[in-house]
Design a protein that fits this description.
single chain; TIM Barrel
């Protein structure tokens, strides 16, 4: 990356900078390879943050199916983490994971899982006596399109709505994503059940089939979806990391708010001594010194960012942190000298910010609150007084997170920890009606980033880092770049 003009002497964040177009030989966005090349199997540079309100098994599987990496949070009990990892590994790669409810479930039950939006549906089936190989075709009543949920009464039974809506394709008939698309069109439905040997193996929509032509799933050596999990720096870190590796985790994230501390270095050394042979990410840090120390202790990926997250109050509470663009730029330069990589963690609100993080040298970009407001994020959908769908989100150092993490402590010790809580404990993240699912956001983000690459004349993430030309702008210049939702 080079600056368009003199290198600034002050630290910068994403809104302070912009990308300058230059001569390009990249003719199409489809000629761009977004693989992060950071030692993981990801094929797009997007990582979901290890926050309780962001990454659960459902989001991690969906993200991996489109090439990204989900990081399960360290606050989950080890038994739940083990189950979540194994669940992700069991999910279909070619098809979408079926959302199944029994016939007696109501529209109100379904609406807590899925908004009335195109391209989604609920399989209605009697799974009470489903064999190990899955739900048999004779137990499937049909699919209720998600849009139907918006026109039916809340107490209507899904079994009644599903009758006459049985559309399916056979997995053996699908030899390409294009074939799948054509087969779905031939059924006249938008979403269909996918069957194999008479049992349900997933669902597929026209848009999902189309996406399969644009994305490569992130899979392990056995062809299963990848997933990461986080551990803290306290307790027997090596034992927990070993258990997660045994469950099949593909990337281990050693995480704490202040990553450049002795406790982190001891934790990384313990993990390195366990000989797990999987990539290890660690953070959070914002300086080259932090990179040097964490890499020496055993980290191959550095998680960079203190304070830029939407749920984080660290900078206002403590004055600690650093503008994110400069933090990524410095740490990425230091990481390259060690053969290590950087994940830019936090502060992205538009696709432009993701592109700028990659220009600064990040291999991937971690996203938190942006993904919290999606169908696949943990938690039930809720409606406000105006009927707008949202999900709850909260910071990982907030009072709510403290309760989740230390709820088993005696009241005195829990009260002591509450005194030092930071971050927002409850925030409504509204679903974008046009992009309610994480795949919709992935489409938008990667489309913008691919275009950024073509403007820079880069066909890969390393080329983009080398060719990106960045200029400085005023606050007015930043505002000028925003589209107007209404006329002036």
């Amino acid at each position: 990356m080079e600056f368009y003009g003199e290198r600034p002497v002050v630290d910068l964040t994403y809104s302070d900078v912009f990308l300058v177009p230059r001569r390009s030989g990249v003719a199409s966005r489809l000629d761009v390879d977004l693989s992060p090349r950071d030692g993981t199997a990801a094929t797009i540079p997007l990582v979901s943050a290890n926050m309780n309100s962001v990454t659960g098994a459902r989001l991690a599987a969906t993200l991996a199916r489109r090439g990204g990496l989900g990081v399960l949070p360290q606050d989950m009990p080890l038994q739940e983490l083990d189950a979540a990892i194994r669940w992700v590994k069991s999910q279909p790669v070619t098809w979408d994971t079926a959302l199944v409810l029994p016939p007696e479930a109501t529209v109100a039950d379904a609406a807590r899982l899925l908004p009335a939006t195109e391209g989604h549906g609920i399989v209605v089936a009697d799974a009470s006596h489903a064999p190990a190989e899955g739900i048999a075709v004779d137990d499937i009543l049909g699919i209720v399109p998600a849009l139907r949920l918006g026109t039916a009464l809340p107490d209507a039974r899904l079994g009644d709505l599903a009758r006459g809506r049985s559309a399916s394709i056979d997995a053996d008939d699908v030899d390409s994503a294009r074939t799948a698309f054509d087969l779905i069109v031939a059924t006249g439905a938008d979403t269909v059940c996918v069957l194999h040997h008479g049992h349900l193996v997933g669902t597929l929509s026209r848009r999902s089939a189309l996406r399969s032509t644009l994305y490569r799933p992130a899979v392990d050596a056995s062809g299963r979806l990848i997933v990461a999990a986080a551990v803290g720096i306290n307790g027997d870190v090596a034992a927990k990391a070993t258990a997660l590796a045994a469950a099949g985790v593909d990337v281990l994230v050693v995480d704490t708010a202040h990553g450049h501390q002795e406790g982190m270095l001891r934790a990384l050394q313990a993990v390195a001594g366990a000989g797990l042979d999987i990539p290890v990410a660690a953070g959070n840090i914002v300086t080259a010194d932090g990179v040097d120390d964490l890499v020496a202790a055993g980290a191959g990926i550095l998680k960079v960012g203190v304070g830029p997250g939407a749920m984080c109050t660290t900078r206002m509470m403590t004055a600690v942190g650093r503008p994110q663009f400069s933090a990524v730029l410095e740490t990425a330069e230091a990481a390259r000298a060690h053969g290590a990589h950087v994940w830019a963690d936090g502060g992205v609100r538009y696709p432009r910010d993701v592109a700028l993080a990659l220009a600064a040298g990040a291999a991937s970009v971690m996203i938190g609150s942006w993904f919290a407001g999606t169908i696949e994020a943990p938690g039930e959908l809720q409606l406000d007084a105006d009927g707008r769908a949202y999900k709850e989100s909260w910071g990982m150092a907030s009072t709510k997170a403290v309760h989740d993490r230390f709820g088993r402590l005696d009241p005195y010790e829990l009260a002591r920890k509450e005194l030092f809580a930071e971050g927002i404990s409850s925030s409504r993240i509204y679903l974008d009606p046009l992009r309610p699912g994480i795949e919709d956001l992935i489409d938008m983000i990667t489309s913008g980033v691919r275009s950024s690459f073509t403007y820079a004349g880069a066909a890969s993430v390393p080329e983009f880092r080398d060719r990106a030309r960045v200029g400085l702008q005023s606050a007015a210049g930043y505002e000028e770049g925003k589209a107007l939702p209404v006329s002036w």
